[in-house]
Amino acid sequence: MSANYTIGLDYGTNSVRALIVNVANGAEIAAAVWTYAHGTQGVVLSRDPNLARQHPADYLAGAAITIQQALRQAKKNQRGFRADQIIGIGVDTTGSTPLPVDANGQPLALRKKFASNHAALAWLWKDHTGVQEAAEITALAKKIRPEYLAKCGGTYSSEWFWSKVLKCKRAAPQVFAAAHAWVELADFVPAALTGTLHPDKFIAGVCAAGHKAMWNARWGGYPDAKFLARLDPDLASLRARLTTRVHAIDKAVGGLTAEWADRTGLPVGIPVAVGAFDAHLGAVGSGVAPGTLVKIIGTSTCDIAVAPNGKKLADIPGLCGIVDGSVLPGYFGLEAGQSAVGDLFNWLVNYVKPGGKTPLSHAELDAEAARLRPGESGLLALDWNNGNRTVLVDQRLTGRRNSPRPRGSHRFRCAHHYQPFRGIRR
User: Fold this and answer.
1) Taking a C-beta distance cutoff of 8 angstroms, is the pair 252, 274 a contact?
2) 215 DSSP 8-state letter
3) How many CB atoms neighbour CB 104 within 10 A?
4) Do 399 and 412 meet the contact criterion of CB atoms below 8 Å apart?
5) Sequence-ordered list of residues with C-beta below 8 angstroms from that of 354, at least 6 positions apart, any chain
6) Is residue 307 part of a domain?
7) Single residue among 278, 309, 325 that ends a domain in this structure
8) Within a domain: residue 407?
9) Is 119 found in the same domain as 211?
10) Complete DSSP assignment for 387-421
């Protein structure tokens, strides 16, 4: 019998990659990577160091390019490989990375009217312009809906859905008014591949909805209209336009359209799974199970664990979320993490340039670090260049004073939190 394969699409901060895997044994037979065309290394920046956006056109182009490249590579690597052996597609992305769409589910950024408007782009996970809005959401929830905060560690983050939507309403009301809805990148890609972008067909994933938009089946889905109206009446109206179809990754959004089959060379109609975040699906691929913690390291990092949903699970302050089905169906998904890991390494190599006139590469720094004993150098810097995600949930925090930083990172304003060799004090 011929082997069957699946394709995974992984949308990161700077690029998208496609991976072809044998479903019988997990063997990886081909992969392709494409750096997003817009912005700086795929991130659209501005004078505001807290702003980080992406162009949705890159998501669509990236899917077509990487799938085509991966299929060509698979034919070279695996004798007899055929595209019709691909039996499904899975999608993971960064998050929360929401984008405004029109009444047909098409991104506003693809309209000529909004082509040069940063607010119409996808608001990348590391966009921290909504710090004030996040604080307002947290304060209101503490007052009237503490159960909302209990499932996301006690503090709502500027990295998350409602903070970004509310910030758009205030900073770019014309974009907010033109948006019929906002959708997460993790949901946009599967919908685009299956022709289900229209609100009548659109399906959202519980991973993004639960961890970033305070969705929970226990209180009927997204935060209630009364709560949202206290923040802004238009948020309550938006809630009514968000989909009620929210599923875990064991469901298919639909089948690959004829258009996308033609663009990629894949068979028409193969199922495309409900999307989720990169760390959560990375944990699935790493064999996450009760009692096993998986650390996913990329531009940022996430710690993922699961627990059976048949048992009551305590609410944990500082955790990024406890969501039923966000990693594995039948299990609570638990997420924590930090905003700057790979970002911090890139900052060190590209801007600090250790080594002077002949800067050391990532690989060379790896080799040097491997010679050190754990703790030998003491605490040299904090991983706060993009703020703190867990447990402080403060995107204003930074690692050191007066250090050079690229655009898109954050103000170095909290050096009093930094104490070499002694740890952190607040």
Assistant:
1) yes
2) -
3) 10
4) yes
5) 348, 360, 365
6) no
7) 278
8) yes
9) yes
10) BB-SSS-BTT--SSTT----TTS-----GGGEETT
CA dihedral 277, 345, 293, 248 (to 10 degrees): 0
Beta-bridge partner residues of 332: 307, 324
Phi-psi region of 265 (alpha: psi -120 to 50; beta: other; left: phi over 0): left
- Whether the CB-CB separation of 318 and 359 falls below 8 Å is answered with no
DSSP state of 361: P
- Structural domain ending residue among the three candidates 238, 258, 278: 278
Q: Provide the H-helix boundaries in 92-145.
A: 131-144
Task: Say how far apart CA 229 and CA 276 lie, in whole Å.
Answer: 28
Q: What's the rounded Cα separation, in Å, for the pair 182 and 381?
A: 37
Dig out the tokens for 135 from the structure: 């604080």
Please state, as a whole number, how many other Cβ atoms lie within 10 Å of the Cβ of residue 378: 8
User: What's 114's domain CATH number?
Assistant: 3.30.420.40
Residue 260: name the closest of 16, 19, 65 by CA.
65
- The SS3 of residue 5 is strand
Q: Please give the residue range of the domain that contains residue 372.
A: 342-382+396-426
Token output for 376: 């030998």
Cα distance between residue 105 and residue 47, in whole Å: 30
Helices (H) and strands (E) in the chain, counts: 13, 19
Give residue-wise pLDDT tens across range 36-75: 999 998 999 999 989 999 999 999 999 999 999 999 999 9
* pTM exceeding 0.85: yes
CA distance 195 to 46: 33
Q: Token match 């992406």: residue? A: 54
Count of domains forming the chain: 2
Written as six digits, the tokens of 325 are 């089905």
Compute the distance between CA of residue 355 and CA of residue 298 in angstroms, rounded to an integer: 24
Q: Is residue 171 assigned to a domain?
A: yes
CB–CB of 39/55 below 8 Å? yes
Q: Angle between the 161-171 and 233-241 helix axes, to the nearest 10 degrees?
A: 120
Backbone angles phi, psi at 216, to 5 degrees: -155, 130
**SS3 label, residue 131:** helix
Read off the tokens for 324. Answer: 């039923």
Look at residues 190, 46, 14, 176 and name the one whose alpha carbon lies nearest to residue 108. 176
With a cut of 60, say whether residue 414 has pLDDT above it: no
Residue 302 within any structural domain of the chain: no
Check whether 419 has a pLDDT greater than 50.
Answer: no
